[in-house]
Amino acid sequence: MKLLWVGIVVGLLYFREVVSGYERVGFNATELSHFEAHGASLAVANDPLMVGLTLIQNAAAKGAVCLDGTLPGYHLRRGSGSGANNWLINLEGGGWCNNVRTCVYRKKTRRGSSKYMEKEIPFTGILSSNPEDNPDFFNWNKVKLRYCDGASFTGDTQDKDAQLEFRGQRIWSAAMEDLMSKGMSSAGQALLSGCSAGGLASILHCDEFRDLFPKTTKVKCLSDGGLFLDVFDVSGERTLRNFYNGVVDLQGVKQNLPRTCIDHLDPTLCFFPQNLIASIKTPLFLLNAAYDSWQIQASLAPPAADPQGYWHECTLNHGKCSSLQIQFLQGFRSQMLYVIKDFSKSNQNGLFINSCFAHCQSERQDTWFADDSPLIGSQPIAIAVGNWYFDRAVVKAIDCAYPCDKTCHNLIFK
């Protein structure tokens, strides 16, 4: 089980091969997030704009440091023209660490230390500066806040013996303060987004983000691939709840969780979006695959819950799932739709839940906005998000169940 989570949190290797409309991805279980690496491979292939890393120089004085004590950082692309006064903040994803051993491992990677972060990264999808690739947000000020704490920017404690700093909440605050000093304080429009662990962070910090600005500023939040569900795995255990319990306890997360939740629920349960979204006041858009590939592999059918390997092939390639396995996955989709039932009643909130085997779709150009992007009806993700943000339409797009959607960019792992 520990090796599985190390695999989710650290590493770099990847390759891909596009076959018959599917992305075929190879990964080593001891390497980092093949989902993120796969997205990076697509970004590089599209020859995107590369944006340099800025370290937050005054962060250390505030105790806002990465796991290893190095300075946190972000990548900033300045806006222009009609977007010069608008800001899009994107919170990087990359799993979590739930015990000292995995956090020590993590601090020796770009997910725990700015020493190992890329000096430049590609801006694609919602971060693209090309109007043909990103029609609504191309000329905004765009920021990618790097993730180096391991608790979705919410922890605040330390482990002196292990030389670990769990300062995600301080990193969030230091970054926002730095960006406000660089012009974000006068934003006319602002959007907080994030993918995976960053998508969870965009939910956790959504109302905090709103409170940074005057009431006259239009502020909304987007969570991509961040709707992690508290569900039973194939063995009847709650793998993700048990894992989150370690994250919350180790990294001092409780004090930074919404009071509206922890007043009546265990702090670990308040790390799950399903227990948070109803109380968020700021308009929020949930973009998620109904058959989230990460959750299938790491939460629903992890190796520890499947010692005989019955689910192994299915988790790598949905085309190899039996009818009973597909039935189980349909149950997961049903739980996701149940979780968002009340959330969807508010017209200020938006939804795009497509019936794909995918994870994170806003930062990849091919899934965000391209000639063959995923659709619900005739609407690609970028247009759905834009229509919602600019109040052009109420967006509550929920796909029919698998296998009806032929526009998916389903992930297939080798």
Question: Could you characterize the architecture of this molecule?
Answer:
It is a single chain. By secondary structure, the protein is α/β, with parallel strands linked by helices. It has a single domain (30-35, 46-398), classed as Rossmann fold (3-Layer(aba) Sandwich). The protein is 28% helix and 19% strand. The protein has 13 helices and 17 strands. It has a 10-stranded mixed beta sheet. It has a 3-stranded mixed beta sheet with strand order 1-2-17, with helices on one face. Strands 8-9 form a two-stranded antiparallel ribbon. It is globular. Residues 1-34 and 36-45 have low confidence and may be disordered.
Secondary structure elements and their pairing?
Elements: H1 2-9, E1 15-19, E2 22-26, H2 34-45, E3 49-55, E4 73-77, E5 86-91, H3 100-106, E6 120-123, E7 141-145, E8 157-159, E9 164-166, H4 168-181, E10 189-195, H5 197-204, H6 206-211, E11 218-224, H7 239-250, H8 259-262, E12 284-289, H9 293-300, H10 312-316, H11 323-339, E13 350-354, H12 365-368, E14 375-376, E15 379-380, H13 381-389, E16 396-398, E17 411-413
GO molecular function: pectin acetylesterase activity
GO cellular component, one term: plant-type cell wall
Protein name: Pectin acetylesterase
In short:
It comes from Eucalyptus grandis. By secondary structure, the chain is α/β, with parallel strands linked by helices. The chain is 28% helix and 19% strand.
